[in-house]
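Field reference: "sequence" (input) and "structure" (output). Example, Cyanophycinase:
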Amino acid sequence: MLSPKIRNSALYFLYKLPLVLLLILGISCQNPETNTIPSKTQSIGPSNGALLIGGGGMTDDMWQVFLELAGGDSAKLVVIPTAFDENSINYDPEFKILERDFKARGFIDVQFMHTRDSLFADTDEFIEPLKSATAVWLEGGRQWRLADAYLNTKTYTELKDVLNRGGIIGGHSAGASIQGSYLVRGGRGDDGNYQIMGDPEVGFGFVTNTAFDQHHLYRNRQYDMFELLKIRPELLGVGIDEDTGILVQGNEFEVIGNKYVAIYDRTFWSPYYNEIDTLESGENKFYLLKNGDKYNLKERRIQLNKFIEPQAISTEELQEYVGEYLYEKSKVFWNNMLIENDTLKFQGYRRNLVLDRIPIYAYEKDVFFDTDAELWFHFVRDSSGRIIGFDKKTHQFIDGQNQRFNRTTD
């Protein structure tokens, strides 16, 4: 027979046993994503088509890229202005002003789709313009209006079909945020301001596990993203400044525009050292990408560039491109072409500053690129075939692909 002391001790253990088991189960069943940072979370872009995601405002070059990927003169564009407020809609109810603006940018076939009614957005009648669209443009405003009207409707399904057919979807400001999986600044906080986390939170998810913020540096938002990533560490944070965007094709994007894109992926990359450092847990750092830089979404790292294989041409052929011109572009800038060690080189002069000679290599007839693929050189001939000059461009369409930068390998 047990003594009262032992019996009371045993009863106490049995009494406490359910609490101990609950504590053990509670610890073991916690979601690991809320307690540890995933070691290899991926973000996946569209398998077909392209996305142009702008921070607010568009440069002429950005519009030109969008038009070319939409199909140029044969583009069939659908514009969705649903993110606008009611005053903007009522000011231009038939979207005549918008239509004029898009036609001025080179679009010929332009249609508009707008509703606040998600039931109407789920009808065959409403989605008809998307059936043949090669491009869709999502206007700025408030991104939650797009989510409320179109998520989980036939419109949303048809938007994804535009990408599946190889089309392009673009947008800036609210039209940028909605393309991510997490809807940055989806609603107002208690103080009336738009916080980084709001309601609704779900975006269209054209790029998975990603949050796109806009007007980023211009509106001093660069530190807001850390608040979101503390709660949602699986997300890739991308902050896009005005007059800047990213062109997403597959699992890679390239920065285009005049300013910068901030990357929040728990690493730090510096162009000065060209090295990627993993940050210590809780260290709040981001890094910036500029026009021409590429990023691998799947691997979540800056895409170091590989060079396109140049064509081999003779010294005599190189001499044809050099000609006899050293010409003045302006009072402060000169261009020069020369041959050095069987290589065609480009050299610029700014006032008294003599720039490095940049090797440029032949890719096809009259098309050359520099060693970093930051510029394509298009040589210009007159009617007799004589080379009379060249144009420098930041991209080149070859075999239907936008070669804004060298092809890369994962």
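The domain at 315-394 is CATH 2.40.128.50 (Lipocalin).
Confidence is low (pLDDT under 50) at residues 1-17, 19-39, 406-410.
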